[in-house]
Write a structure and sequence with these properties.
single chain, Neuraminidase, mainly beta, globular, 332 residues
Length: 332
């Protein structure tokens, strides 16, 4: 495994790394645990995981059967999602739906991730018929798009730029301590050089001093696995994660176009746990994990308490896929 040490040294030498905002205030998804958004039958719903009603209190937010990939904003007030391959945003109650992109099916977008300050959305934009796309940023204030890039052959000064390539899958963005400084980090499935070698499956990491940056990032392969094993669907630990390990992922093994879920990796380098589990996400408090597991009745969403945090238990919540947990602001 190659970690981000070399890239950080280059950044520091270039004088680009600054302390920035306090790590606690900029945790990826700070707050208490709220609703869980999920997908069922191509529509997005929310459920209260603490409801005393059997099956929880379920509310449908979209209709039409073509929606996927819900992601809560860091303040818990909005949900980014996909409709027919285009990126949309709506309020937490399903109101004020706004389309962000409109190029599908010529170009399709992947499951997005909000920047920790809630201003930006990162996703992979992929051209139809192409195996990989480009890591892309949308600015919710200026409504402009930018492609994340890295210096050509890490040259300095950084004149020429290479667009960051990624496989069309979920990405995860966090703000995390990095030694005695802080940085903005995005983890994704790597597709080609400069980080992911040929014939390998990679989790790549792209880092910047600030969340507003999209040029001059230095990527690395956080984890490399020999095909056909790969790690997908990353999700950061919500409170001051260690950039080189604290990403929750699904491990799968693929053969002849068919992939089997091996379980979820609690950190980048750990062995899979919860056999058959996939699409796992942390709760904002960090005390729980929601994940999906296939049953005879179809895919179901479960809640798991990791050992050593609270009394361990696993319970089924509802039928569905692609869960994401709402952060709720903690008030005094």
């Amino acid at each position: 495994m190659r970690r981000w040490t070399a890239g950080l040294t280059t950044l520091a030498a270039a004088g680009l790394l600054a302390t920035g905002l306090a790590g606690t205030a900029q945790a990826a998804y700070p707050g208490a645990d709220g609703l869980i958004a999920f997908v069922r039958g191509g529509n997005i719903y929310t459920i209260n995981p603490e409801s005393t009603t059997p099956g929880g209190t379920i509310v449908r937010l979209t209709a039409g059967g073509h929606d996927a990939g819900p992601r809560w904003s860091p303040d818990g007030q909005q949900i980014a999602y996909l409709d027919r391959g285009n990126l949309w945003v709506m309020n937490a109650n399903g109101s004020h739906k706004a389309r962000i992109t409109d190029q599908a099916p010529g170009y399709t977008d992947s499951r997005p991730s909000w920047s920790p300050n809630g201003r930006y959305l990162a996703f992979v934009k992929t051209k139809r018929g192409v195996k990989y796309g480009y890591l892309t940023r949308y600015d919710t204030v200026t409504r402009k798009f930018a492609t994340f890039s890295t210096p050509y052959h890490s040259e300095a000064p950084t004149r020429r730029q290479i667009k960051v390539t990624a496989l069309p899958g979920a990405v995860a963005w966090t703000w995390t301590p990095n030694g005695d400084t802080h940085g903005s980090f995005i983890i994704f499935q790597g597709a080609t050089a400069p980080a992911c070698p040929a014939n390998r499956s990679c989790l790549d990491l792209l880092g910047f001093p600030a969340q507003s940056d999209y040029r001059n990032g230095f990527p690395s392969a956080e984890n490399e696995k020999a095909r056909p094993v790969q790690q997908i669907d990353p999700d950061w630990y919500p409170i001051n994660p260690l950039y080189y390990q604290d990403a929750l992922t699904t491990q799968e093994r693929c053969h002849a176009g068919h992939c089997t879920y091996q379980g979820i990796n609690m950190t980048v380098t750990s062995a899979p746990v919860l056999p058959g589990a996939y699409e796992a996400v942390h709760s904002p408090s960090g005390f729980y994990i929601a994940y999906v597991k296939n049953t005879r009745s179809g895919p179901g969403i479960y809640i798991y308490n990791p050992p050593g945090i609270v009394p361990m238990r696993t319970r089924e919540l509802t039928i569905g896929t692609e869960p994401d947990w709402q952060p709720v602001e903690v008030t005094a």
